[in-house]
């Protein structure tokens, strides 16, 4: 008989109440007034909301940095008209990080407890002037806490590794937004592997995305978005690495279905793809494989073929006698485990688990010195290794 258990949800609402005390204000500088930071109809992300839930009355957003004042005003107006207005009433607007850091050099007492960077990758994560805000911040504040969205940059991979080397000279706390690492289902799979002392033989990641609501034109240009593996499949390359370890990048091999292939025609595109040069159009399906340094093999199958709204996702892990599947990471995550004792899979459900809440719970706890640094599950170096893998797949 199939055995099914359910793990209770994380109690975000209770945690807000637990943090209601106003005695230690936590100051945040938010960089970017777009979808990841303030929500978008395409998905469940909304970093500001998760920070509000974590900190309650203790939150003060000191600065919102965004080059387009209209966007900043729209966000601030809506926040000031909501039940979290206390956190935004005094927020100052800046149009660039340089302007903000210049202000802080004259007002060091306003140094924020955390910087939260959620902007397109062209504008950060590099060692080149103009896209080097992480380095600018840590040069001025060597102990700063930075939360940075994925992908960590769109710069050359060697430039990103140079940033890693430069960041190592400072004590900054850095967390990269690979939120799936914080899912309870992922934690449970990690624990199972550890408890049973398993050697992973292969990781097989499947990410089938729905395309008809994705109307951001830049996303459909490989050179502008970085391509769907760098931009989107990155979450599953990252999770594969989380279980498989470091990748031997020279072993990456790829096949893909292009828009020009007869089976690559999509009937419900939300943008006019005719205006995009053919060599710039995104592949419909990418099949990549690689060897990990451990000798294990990784596989990624990424597609942009489903219509509707839900994504279909799965990560399979195999080890001698054990078959572990992590299913529906964007929806209701489930863990399936087949072990040597029985051919029948055990199923564990993890309903209502919010990895965005948990990644900020960990980041804020570490930034406040209340949690050990190990609670941050993805740092800049690790995010750079994932970026390196996604670039190798895209350029193969
Ligand atoms: N982890 C997730 O689930 C997830 C979900 C969505 C987006 N993201 C990532 O977040 C990043 C941003 O995506 P988005 O959807 O918010 O994009 P967006 O286009 O909705 O918003 C980007 C915002 O950044 C601002 N901006 C641009 N350059 C800037 C600069 N130099 N300084 C300050 N602000 C600047 C823009 O004005 C805009 O407000 C991307 O890297 C994306 O991959 C992650």
Automatic annotation (TrEMBL):
Domain named Oxidoreductase putative C-terminal: residues: 181-322
Domain Gfo/Idh/MocA-like oxidoreductase N-terminal positions: 26-178
SUPFAM superfamilies named among the record's database cross-references: Glyceraldehyde-3-phosphate dehydrogenase-like, C-terminal domain, NAD(P)-binding Rossmann-fold domains
Superkingdom of origin organism: Eukaryota
Any GO molecular function: nucleotide binding
Protein name, as recorded: NAD binding dehydrogenase
């Amino acid at each position: 008989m199939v055995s099914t258990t359910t793990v209770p949800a994380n109690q975000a609402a209770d945690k807000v109440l637990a943090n209601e005390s106003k005695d230690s204000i936590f100051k945040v500088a938010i960089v970017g007034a777009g979808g990841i930071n303030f929500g978008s109809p395409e998905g469940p992300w909304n970093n500001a909301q998760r920070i509000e839930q974590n900190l309650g009355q203790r939150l003060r957003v000191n600065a919102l940095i965004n080059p387009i004042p209209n966007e900043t005003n729209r966000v601030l107006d809506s926040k000031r008209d909501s039940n979290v207005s206390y956190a935004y009433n005094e927020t100052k607007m800046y149009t660039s990080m340089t302007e903000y850091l210049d202000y802080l050099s004259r007002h060091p007492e306003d140094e924020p407890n955390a910087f939260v960077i959620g902007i397109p990758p062209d504008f950060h994560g590099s060692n080149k002037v103009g896209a080097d805000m992480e380095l600018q911040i840590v040069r001025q504040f060597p102990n700063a806490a930075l939360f940075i969205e994925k992908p960590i940059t769109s710069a050359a991979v060697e430039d990103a590794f140079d940033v890693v080397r430069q960041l190592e000279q400072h004590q900054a706390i850095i967390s990269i937004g690979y939120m799936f690492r914080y899912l309870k289902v992922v934690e449970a799979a990690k624990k199972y592997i550890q408890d049973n002392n398993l050697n992973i033989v292969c990781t097989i990641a499947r990410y089938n995305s729905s395309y008809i609501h994705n109307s951001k034109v830049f996303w459909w240009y490989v050179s502008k978005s970085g391509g769907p593996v760098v931009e989107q499949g990155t979450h599953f390359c990252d999770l594969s690495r989380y279980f498989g370890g470091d990748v031997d990048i020279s072993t990456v091999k790829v096949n893909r279905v292009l828009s020009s292939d007869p089976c690559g025609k999509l009937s419900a595109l939300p943008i006019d793809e005719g205006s995009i040069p053919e060599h710039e159009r995104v592949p419909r399906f990418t099949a990549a494989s690689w060897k990990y340094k451990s000798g294990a093999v990784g596989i990624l199958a990424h597609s942009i073929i489903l219509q509707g709204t839900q994504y279909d996702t799965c990560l399979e892990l195999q080890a001698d006698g054990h078959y572990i599947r992590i299913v529906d990471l964007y929806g209701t995550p489930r863990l399936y485990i087949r072990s040597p004792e029985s051919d029948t899979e055990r199923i564990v459900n993890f309903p209502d688990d919010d990895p965005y809440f948990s990644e900020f719970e960990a980041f804020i706890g570490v930034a406040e010195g209340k949690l050990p640094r190990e609670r941050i599950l993805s740092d800049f170096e690790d995010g750079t290794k994932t970026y390196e893998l996604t670039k190798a797949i895209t350029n193969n």
